[in-house]
Design a protein that fits this description.
By secondary structure, the protein is mostly helical. The chain has helices at about 5-35, 40, 55-65, 70-100, 105-115, 125-135, 140-165, 170-175, 180-190, 195-210, 215-220, 225-230, 240-260, 265-270, and strands at about 235, 240. The chain has a two-stranded antiparallel ribbon. Helix 4 crosses helix 10.
């Protein structure tokens, strides 16, 4: 018998949830406020939570750099390109696993997901050498491909989970009407899976946009996205905390807005199939 939730317990859980949310969001809030401080105020001790002297100078300085928009364009190309490529590969892969499973389907899925548990630095050297020999270092296409491959296991898993919830009877009915495999996927499966594909697409864009390890190790000046651009505010003379925070705020703002306006879609895609 389920225990009734009293108002006191409900308030306690609500307060704890808000406290955890604040702790998670605190670093982003601190970065946002530091972006409005002068460099002197940013290194005050004890630190000031709110800027003693509010300024927009750091944002103007970041925007005035000639390479800012080039890095922003690189981020858009890399995040968008890797997402499109991942969906092109993952949709038929997830379809075959969901509707034509074999004895090893779940083993294959777990093997794919296990690659996400490996530390990225463990495969850096072989991938770096492969990219060097293929001439893909500091190349937009090369970085797009590697980010697509890194996020592909999660994309396949999410689509597989979503496809499993689609009634097989509908697909069998389309086959009885003479639909080919291609028509079955394009005209029957995809329209029903639009919410799942959209949430998967959004998650992949966020992961690719925020990727820093591979962008720092496989790019230099030409193909570096915003995550690598932020690192340019670190120099042997020290860190420019206020300008670094302004650059970080400008880099995460688009993805925060995307996540905010699509939060229902993201939560639905991430939790689909968790409760039946």
């Amino acid at each position: 018998m389920a225990r009734a939730v009293t108002p006191q317990r409900k308030w306690t859980f609500t307060i704890l949830a808000w406290l955890v949310a604040f702790l998670i969001f605190f670093p982003i809030l601190w970065t946002f406020l530091t972006a409005f401080k002068t460099e002197g105020d940013a290194i005050l001790f004890p630190p000031a939570f709110f800027p003693p002297h509010w300024t927009l100078e750091n944002f103007f300085e970041v925007q005035s750099r000639s390479d800012y928009f080039k890095h922003f364009f690189n981020s858009v190309v890399i995040a968008g390109g890797s997402t499109v490529l991942a969906l092109i590969i993952a949709v038929p892969a997830a379809w075959s696993m969901a509707f034509s499973p074999s004895k090893r389907t779940k083993d294959i899925l777990m093997w794919m997901l296990s690659t996400k548990m490996m530390p990225a630095v463990g495969v850096l050297v072989p991938i770096y050498l492969i990219f060097k020999n293929l001439g893909l270092l500091d190349n937009l296409f090369g970085l797009t491909v590697i980010l697509m491959l890194i996020n592909l296991p999660i994309v396949v898993w999410m689509l597989y989970t979503y496809f499993k919830e689609i009634p097989v009877d509908i697909l069998e009915a389309s086959r009885m009407d003479g639909a080919t495999l291609w028509k079955e996927i394009v005209y029957v499966l995809l329209p029903m899976a639009v919410p799942g594909i959209a949430s998967t697409m959004l998650l992949n864009v966020i992961l690719a946009w925020n990727e820093a390890f591979w962008t720092l190790n496989l790019t230099a000046a030409n193909a570096a996205p915003l995550t690598a651009f932020i690192a340019s505010y670190s120099s042997p003379e020290g860190l420019f905390w206020a300008k670094l925070s302004a650059a970080s705020t400008l880099a995460i703002a688009p993805i925060l807005l995307l996540g905010w306006f699509s939060q229902k879609q993201l939560v639905r895609g991430l939790t689909f199939g968790a409760v039946k």
